[in-house]
Design brief:
With 127 residues, this protein is α+β, with helices and mostly antiparallel strands. The protein has a single domain, classed as predicted glycosyltransferase like domains (Thrombin, subunit H), CATH 2.40.10.220. It is 28% helix and 43% strand. The chain has 3 helices and 7 strands, in the order αβββββββαα. A 6-stranded antiparallel β-barrel has the order 2-3-4-7-6-5. The N and C termini lie far apart (31 Å).
Length: 127
């Protein structure tokens, strides 16, 4: 129990950006594969996303991948890599970090966060 709590505290320290719950759909492909898979974004930040996937999806940590994030008004692609993955019940959760070289992709994520989570952002400033 203590070890799990310590692990969670260490994860908190690594987070540089505020996360927002975002039930948007995503298509992704792992570099080197032609197949695309579907998932749902559990939360999103300027640095990356946490995805919920079917456990049949075979995606490993340190895999380079491309995501097509389907916001309500736009779909766009962003590159990055898988930081971690774990099974949660019948599903799999994956932590995906956006690539530093895709600054325009990060900017577009930022624009959508401002647009879709404005209330959460402004509430955070005053608390």
């Amino acid at each position: 129990m203590k070890q799990q709590k310590k692990h969670e505290e260490n994860m908190e320290e690594k987070r540089r950006f505020i996360r927002f719950q975002a039930p948007f759909c995503v298509q992704y492909s792992v570099d080197g594969e032609t197949r695309e898979f579907s998932g749902v974004i559990k939360d999103i930040s300027m640095g990356g996303v946490r995805l919920t996937l079917d456990t049949a999806s075979s995606i490993l940590s340190d895999s380079a991948a491309k995501l097509s994030i389907m916001f309500p008004d736009e779909t766009f692609k962003v590159a990055g890599k898988v930081i971690w993955s774990k099974e949660v019940g019948e599903m799999k959760e994956v932590g995906f970090c956006f690539s530093a070289s895709t600054e325009s992709g990060r900017e577009r994520v930022h624009q959508h966060i401002l647009k879709h989570f404005k209330e959460q952002l402004t509430r955070g400033w005053w608390q």
